Amino acid sequence: MHFDADPNAHSVDQIPLEDCYTQAICLDLSHVELKSRITVADLEAAEAASGETIQPRDTVLLYMAHYDRTFGTPAFMTDFPGLTKEAAEWLGAKGILMFGVEAASPGRPGKDNFEVHLVCRDMGFTHMEGLTNLDKVVGAGRFTFIGFPLKIRGGTGSPIRAVAVLDT
User: Fold this and answer.
1) How far apart are alpha carbons 161 and 156 in whole angstroms?
2) What does DSSP assign to residue 130?
3) 161 by DSSP, 3-state: which?
4) Is the pLDDT of residue 1 over 70?
5) Distances from the Cα of 132 to the Cαs of 27, 107, 112, in angstroms?
6) What are phi and psi of 99, to 5 degrees?
């Protein structure tokens, strides 16, 4: 329902729980400048550098070191890197279920953010915002990601408890 006026759009309580318990990878975009736009080329390079391949139904976490560089300052809410529309479409074309960022939004404030939300709506995947500790899972290979939303009837979004289960 987030950004979808269709009365038949699914609300957060209608998301299948298996879509919130997935295989995942975390891509390293920590070198990307603050306030910059993350492009398809950035994602392709990060995927190649990870040694992993994004699979259908994966969760993709994007470590931008935004939290490390800006948390506790006014810049935290405004200076984050963000996906372009094309980068979001690239993720969607991989068949992912969701992606997550450390920032308050998945795209740069304004047009980019609006377009990324529309891509998620139109391609049928979702995103998570405000994740922390991604530095602990970047470079960890494939792992299990768990992020169950609260069962808010008619909700357009929800807090989650994000957990990465690493194979030891």
Assistant:
1) 17
2) S
3) coil
4) no
5) 14, 17, 22
6) -135, 160
Q: Is 118 helix (H, G, I), strand (E, B) or coil?
A: helix
Spatial separation of the C-alpha atoms in residues 127 and 156, rounded to whole Å: 12
pTM for the whole structure: 0.94
Compute the average pLDDT of residues 12-33: 94
CA 72 remoteness from chain centre: 21
Average pLDDT over residues 18-39: 97
Q: Are 34 and 79 spatial neighbours (Cβ–Cβ below 8 Å)?
A: yes
Output the CA–CA distances (angstroms, integers) from residue 151 to 17, 21, 105, 127, in the order listed. Answer: 10, 15, 22, 17
Q: How confident is the model at residue 168 (pLDDT cuts 50, 70, 90)?
A: low
Residue type, 31: H
Give me the residue spans of the domains in the chain: 12-165
Place of tokens 């470079």: 139
Q: Which residues of 113-131 are buried (b: 16+ CB within 10 A; e: fewer)?
A: bebbbebbbeeebbbbeeb
Return the CATH number of the domain spanning residue range 12-165: 3.50.30.50
- CB count within 10 Å of CB 92 equals 16
The token duo for 61 is 């976490």
